[in-house]
Specification:
With about 90 residues, this protein is mostly helical. About 50% of the residues lie in helices and about 0% in strands.
């Protein structure tokens, strides 16, 4: 498995636009994101709140921490959770 692409072998991932539409439909009623921010979320698939800082402009002033956690939850639910290879340092 290519560790640089943790979602490539994920069964939630499809190669069409349906996953983008699902993320947008789920998030749109609660959070106001730009189209660019949606694309970045889907392409980068954040799983930590700190990652949202680089993906959503002024995320801390626009969204409460609970909303940020919800955004991450939606991304995980729709796109799946990344399989990370963590090697122990020795």
């Amino acid at each position: 498995m290519d560790s640089s692409r943790p979602f490539a072998n994920n069964p939630h991932y499809s190669h069409d636009a349906s996953y983008l539409n699902n993320v947008m439909r789920t998030l749109a009623p609660k959070v106001d994101l730009t189209k660019t921010e949606y694309l970045i979320l889907v392409n980068q698939r954040p799983y930590r709140r700190a990652q949202l800082q680089a993906m959503i402009e002024d995320v801390d002033s626009r969204f409460e921490q609970a909303d940020q956690d919800w955004i991450l939850s939606v991304v995980k639910d729709v796109l799946g959770e990344p399989v990370l290879n963590v090697e122990a340092e020795g």
